[in-house]
Amino acid sequence: MKYSSLSAATLLVAIIISISSPLLPAADNIGVGAAAIKGAELILDGSRKLLDDKWTYWKGPRFSSSLPIKWKVVDDPVDSGKKAIQTDDPAAKGGRYGTADIVTKKKYRDFRLHIEFLVMKKRGNSGVYLQNRYEIQVLDGDKSKHGMGAVINESNSPYELYNGVGKWNSYDIVFRAARFKDGKLSEKAIVSMYFNGKKAHTNVAINKVWGGPNSGLDGGNQGGRGITDVPGGLKLQCEGHDVRYRNTWIKEIDLKKADTDF
Length: 262
Known about the structure:
Elements: H1 2-20, E1 41-44, H2 48-54, E2 55-57, E3 72-75, E4 83-86, E5 102-104, E6 110-119, E7 125-130, E8 134-139, E9 168-176, E10 179-181, E11 184-187, E12 189-195, E13 198-206, E14 235-236, E15 243-253
């Protein structure tokens, strides 16, 4: 009887903590099909309206498309009656990255993000850029530090969590931007992530902007190593592959401490 009472008390404490902390998601707030948490903004739902309202092209050094956004609204290949956005832009044909990437009009500092993607064919390639700087890779078949689900060149790929070609996948991310003091970097950007509802990364520090000026904000700064404290948008990469996105929402948060675990 005493043991049962203690278990109930412990459970009650856990429930109170989960309700009071916005960074501790309920089971239905992570994984494929997750509903948006309170206060989150839906930024991609498969509709043309939201695509045009919330997004624009990133006009980097290789940009060669033009508005309106040429990405297509297509039928969801898994869930009948639903729509998705396809990374199909003629400017990127042949894998010409940086020519037709899209970025949110709104810029963010610290945030909680949910995004769902589906790779239609083997070796399908795209990418999710946090603050238009730091890439979380979307690349079928690659299990390296440059592979699926990796914080590019900073972590190993949690490839075992990938659902595979033709199936929906999800990233749930808490991101804390780099901090500066007196104009100098004092704390690195860090990120934690669930991949398809399972923990993949915890407080991974990001040491530099990878990929050069063709990849994102600050890319050419100090040979690619430089980072500024200017907020940036969420960017999705177009590399001439059939990768699809849906159900993407984001919530701005303010993380005082260097901890993104959730």
